[in-house]
Amino acid sequence: MGFDLEKANETLRHFERLVEEGRVESWSGELKVGVDLGTANIVIAVVDSENRPVAGITTPSRVVRDGIVVDYIGAVRALTRMKAELEAKLGCSLDKAATAIPPGIMDGNVRCICNVVEGAGFEVSNVVDEPTAAASVLGVHSGAVVDVGGGTTGISIMEDDKVIYTADEPTGGTHMTLVLGGFYRCSTEEAEVMKKDPAQEHAVFPVVRPVVEKMASIVKANLRQHPVDAIYVVGGACCFSQFEQVFEKNIGISTIKPAAPLLVTPLGIAMNA
Hints:
The protein is 45% helix and 25% strand. It is of the alpha/beta class.
């Protein structure tokens, strides 16, 4: 299957509705589970044997920072609660789950992420890197997949379904929040709420635009030795309506952002379970 943005967006919007409404779809075959321990959110995605979204749940979290678990007990508790809630809705137990890691993460941190997933009662069935998970949802075989998370901007360059280069740089949604808080002289908590409110984007984006331009410069530098025809941006920090335009203007390469960018990677993790 090649890249089909319309089809990918249809799947992502459907999954987004399931998460927002707390609904469960009927399924066929075996359920597959993906756990995404993000810097700003923990997400569990459930798909069936044909990779159709069945259920999902998300919760704000600060238990992970830049791919490193900083609150092990808090992470296990949050994930255990989310797992139980999904199992109650589905009427069955979820025993296995895949999880994901940012590009270039150290082995010890990978083990710690797996320990959290196992601590919540899952058997880890697979560990994939985040941009590869995202690419599987989008049907991308070649190009640059950029995962803009809370703490970092992760870049994976794909060629014929293979990751040929990865990088992870420390600029993400958290930096936007800090800039926003400094500009409006409010707490980081207030700035975070403001950042996530689509109704306030007109007041937020001009302030955080330099951070987005910094992300674009990071991506551009990493693409100098690995030219691509297209960039695909995912992750919660790229939700602003003008995000991809800033990337395209600064990098000079076609930049594509799918629907529900926060949920692309979690859904891809489940598909790779």
